[in-house]
Amino acid sequence: MCSRFKETMGFALASSGLLGATGSQAEYGLNFVEPAAGVAQEIYDIHMMTMQVSTVLLLIVFGIVFYSLYYHRKSKGFEPDQNFHKSWFGNWSWVIVPVMVLGVDLTIASKADAVLKKVWVVPEGEKLMDVKVTGHQWWWEFDYLDHNIKVESRYIPQEKSEDLYLREVDNRLLLPNNTKVRFLHTSADVLHAFWVPALGFKKDAIPGYVTETWADLDREGVFRGQCAEICGTWHSRMPIVVEVVSQDKFDNWLEEQNQIKVAALAEASAGKTWSKDELMAKGEELYNTKCAACHQVSGLGLPPAFPALKASPIALGPVAAHLDIVLNGKEGTAMQAWGTMNDLEIAAIMTYERNAWDNNTGDVVQPADVKQAR
Amino acid sequence: MSTTTLTHDDAHHHETPTGWRRWLYSTNHKDIGTLYLLFALTMLFLGGASAMVIRAELFMPGIQLVDPDLYNNLVTNHALIMIFGAVMPAAAGLANWMIPMMIGAPDMALPRMNNLSFWILPAAATMLILSFVVPFFPGGGTQINTGWTLYPPLSIQVGMSMDFLIFAIHLLGASSILASINIIVTLLNMRAPGMKLMQMPMFCWTWLVTAFLLILVVPVLAGGVTMLLFDRHFGTSFFDAAGGGDPVLFQHLFWFFGHPEVYILLLPSIGVLSHVIPTFSRKPLFGYNSMVGAMLAVATIGMVVWAHHQYTVGMSLGAVTYFMIGTIIISIPVGLMIFNFIATMWRGAMTFETPMLFAIAIILMFTFGGLSGVMLAVVPADMQYHDSMFVVAHFHYVLMPGAVFGLFAGVFYWLPKWTGHMYDERLGKIFFWTNIVGFNITFFPQHFLGLAGMPRRIIDYNVMFTEFNVLSSFGAMIFGFSHLLLLYIVISTIRGGQKAKARAWEGADGLEWELDSPPTFHTWEVAPTIK
Amino acid sequence: MSAKAQSDDYFIPDPSPWPIVGMFSVFTMLMGVALTINGVGVGKWVIFAGLLLFAFLLYRWFRDVVDESLSNRYNKQVDTSFRMGMFWFIASEVFFFLSFFGALYYIRVIALPWLGGEGYLGSTQELLYPGFEAAWPSHGPGEMGGDFTPMGAWGIPAINTLILLTSGATITWAHWGLKVDNQKQLINGLIATVALGLIFVVLQMYEYGHAYADLNLTLGSGAYGSTFYMLTGFHGFHVTMGAIMLMAILGRSMKKHFSAHNHFAFEAVAWYWHFVDVVWLGLFVFVYWL
Ligand code: HEA
Ligand code: HEA
Ligand code: CUA
Ligand SMILES: [Cu+2]
Description:
The complex is a heterotrimer.
Chain A: H1 3-23, H2 38-71, H3 88-120, E1 129-136, E2 139-144, E3 149-153, H4 158-161, E4 173-176, E5 180-187, E6 192-196, E7 201-205, E8 211-216, E9 221-226, E10 239-245, H5 247-268, H6 276-295, H7 313-316, H8 319-328, H9 343-355, H10 367-373
Parallel strand pairs in A: 1-5, 4-10
Antiparallel strand pairs in A: 1-2, 2-3, 5-8, 6-7, 9-10
Helix pairs in contact in A: 2-3, 6-9, 9-10
Chain B: H1 8-12, H2 19-24, H3 29-58, H4 68-103, H5 111-133, H6 154-157, H7 161-189, H8 202-233, H9 247-281, H10 288-303, H11 317-329, H12 331-345, H13 354-377, H14 379-385, H15 389-419, H16 425-452, H17 466-495
Helix pairs in contact in B: 3-4, 3-5, 3-17, 4-5, 4-7, 4-9, 4-15, 5-7, 7-8, 8-9, 8-10, 9-10, 9-12, 9-13, 9-15, 10-12, 12-13, 13-15, 13-16, 15-16, 16-17
Chain C: H1 18-37, H2 43-70, H3 76-115, H4 123-128, H5 156-179, H6 183-215, H7 222-254, H8 264-289
Helix pairs in contact in C: 1-2, 3-7, 3-8, 5-6, 5-8, 6-7, 7-8
The structure holds heme-A (2 copies), dinuclear copper ion and copper (II) ion.
């Protein structure tokens, strides 16, 4: 007689047992990560608020249902109350219930609305630091618009990153503490989304459009996130690491980057003729960071999505056609235009591609050739 | 049936057609309903098998079983097969079987078209499966790695299999629209004399609203994918900024369909619950009128809140505020429905047969999923939840209880009517418990994964997410295998078992229970009179 | 064809092979299209085979329906079912068109101003397209397809508007004829309607030719070209379908299939024709004029 009830309770126990079991593993992150920016804190609070409201509502529903399951059983001899829906409550519940729910809804909405305004509207009349974030298949480009510095950020393979695999990148997005930063998101190919939980937001990167968000950084530290919009094969390999440092440190870093940039520019525009070995060495390194995600270190690609460059008719064929696809990419495919690299870099990669993996064409592409082709 | 005009034609449409023609050429709502249900069951297993591969891959960090493109291809196919192949056809199958019997009609209003709307489905499924397998043949292009939302420009990069998928969607849409027209016409025109709209059984009401929704939103999806096709092949720039278009436009079109679609999936199950709960509480449905009103409200509001799936695309403050408030407001009518169900149980005399167990589980777990939906609706917080595993947890909590369990409840509830046999109650209960436990172990942990920062649609993840993924995959295996029991129960009930009475359940009420179990090939040839 | 021998039973057709044949024909056609647009040569023949099967199917299916109708097996209730069915079918078509109109609206009101740096999030233009001005008609910042001249409203389009409006009147006139059993008026009205419909299609084709040849306005002309051809093309397709349906009805009228009280098929086609007409008015205003 009571067995049915026991089964029902079994369900309740099983599900609450699950709650308890998972609740004790806090170190794995059961909730949002700790916020690292002004608005992120408020977002965190609103999340906690809705979660608490939901929990209370859930408890009420569970409570009433289980009470009813227990007392209004046929096996307990309960006679159905055929007139329940005709009582005053039955007549008016269609007003009472919506009004009560509306009350809760409005509470949530009004709290949310206040936070929303702050999140959405980039503060005006203040000096914000502008960072342009461009998503690429499958890496990020950070452009410090105020300082004319660009950073390319890619995932680090498992051998090197180990436990931080898919959470660590080669070049982090460095930002100074106690600054308001305006992020300008866009994409070079397909949709991506910039998501660093500690900053409290996520924003889509839409090719051809720019979307904006901002953050009011207030804590030093390393904050990790990753691309949150499906962007093709290696969507899982687009981590983002933001490192918030003191203003001094940031200024030093900027200085360093500037020097590197100047040096690279000088090297590229030196107008010298490079030896094949120099180009091959440079090319290998560049190829392995920039091209290997698709065409693979082995040059074999991942057909049919990504063609092999080893023995590819383009890599073995005329230099001009090869240069063209590297400089201009191919519309409608994941192969993007790489023309943003300088002449030397392109020359090095081309030379590498034409001679590595038994391609042995013997061709040496010089920066001057690239310059001419542009 | 008129006795005056017994012509040759009249005489032979009372024979039961036999052999393969009976099924292929059918114009009988019961046979077509059976076809729909069998098709849906097959698709459930296909979609479920891909879900099992997904979960097996996510069991551990690293890439073990499939490559990333295949993973996303599976995710895409899993979602489309489940939604368009399993849930919608199953709901249409229930509609075909039950609506004419419930309203005292001899058949659906347009029986031949009814058969057409079924037979388009296998064609569509073939297209869908082609889109999955074509890339494995030489020259087949790349795999569909976009997820079921097919957002451009990624979907423009995909090879020819995307075209198969687009045509599959056209076919699925055509099938749904034809089926909906049929259902609307049947409900408006074929009710037994004397049955007013506000006396219609609730399942009929839910389907009436669902069919309206389908007719209004499915064409928009078809239009959206047509534009996608043109962008892919004919040089248009609807979704290309360079030409003045916008990738986000596709998202608007998709979700203008997509959000009402979730209520399309939900409502028929709500209809089933409106019969199951009163039956096993031995008490009429609480708040019939408010139920109808709530449903209409859900459908209307549901049509105008689609952009809550796109909070992160950079809409204006005004727009997101509007979509947020609209979305939160939906909790009012849905809450009223849930409330009515609870009030129906309240002070009833409940027994707990399998359909009722599912119904109770739905009330509890759908509320859970609905509440996480309200959390998602809050824009600032959705900046975090969006496209994370939290969303995956939300929608499986609404889709499984809200749609699939409702259909299970319906199948168990009406199986005696269809087959004439009672299913084995003990097995039914075992199925229920393994199912529910498996379900919760699978999807509950995904909330935490999402909050901790794990995006959806990724094949590979950092070690910090391992524990919950292991738990989730483990639950999925229990959950998956429990469905084999469903298969067993259904087959063995069709083949035999205790004879079912006309009124198979003690508390059941409605015209369908006045017919024999199983009903004769043609029923209600003389319309019943409604008191 | 005795006048009042309708059966009381709701008509349930016998098992019929046509639905499943319909499935095969549509599947074959779509398969053919999928192959063709991906450069598979046999695709065209597959489409052709599908079309043939489809035409055969329509002919046989409707022949069955006509037979049933003529042998008076449809009663009043069945007739109502047909009417409602047609009505809701047209409703779904309305929403199909709405998706294209919606795209036009979105591009003009939201996407272009955004690209042009207006309103909220104005940085798009500043960062990506300095100097780009968003004004309709537009082929976007990428100037897709090169310079083009937009299609004016007061030439062929205005004439076409008149043609369609007139055809709406002629079909109504034919309907009046049918209602009073005036066979001649019915046939003449239908002939006029079909002729007007065909003239419309021919003018439309001419307009497309002109656009491609002289205006450099192509499918590839950015957002303007895309929406222009999509909307007018989809409409033109509907006019063509409507004209074919009208011809079928004309044929049946000549065979005296319709009576003053019983002519659902005629009315269905007339509704459809009016629907196509109304859509055109929307097109004229939003695509050509504004
Ligand atoms: C059957 C399917 C179904 C149903 C019924 C729902 C119901 C709801 N959904 Fe869900 N949803 C999906 C299926 C469904 N959803 C799917 C498939 C996706 C993901 C698609 C994809 O991206 O792939 C999704 C995604 C999704 C998002 C986007 C998340 C994102 O991507 O960022 C949002 C945001 O607002 C949302 C909200 C809601 C809300 C508010 C409801 C409401 O209808 C819920 C209402 C119910 C209740 C609230 C519970 C009962 C009420 C009470 C007990 C009364 C008291 C309650 C209050 C006072 C709050 N859903
Ligand atoms: C009605 C719709 C529906 C249903 C019923 C399901 C059912 C299930 N879903 Fe699905 N799911 C979606 C709709 C649905 N899903 C949608 C819309 C998405 C989003 C897609 C996207 O991102 O684009 C999604 C995405 C999705 C993901 C996220 C993938 C990702 O983002 O990376 C996962 C992962 O856990 C998942 C798991 C499951 C599981 C385990 C089930 C289980 O319930 C399945 C249980 C059923 C069976 C298992 C079938 C029967 C049994 C057998 C076949 C025999 C036994 C076989 C074995 C055990 C091998 N689903
Ligand atoms: Cu970039 Cu996902
Ligand atoms: Cu939604």
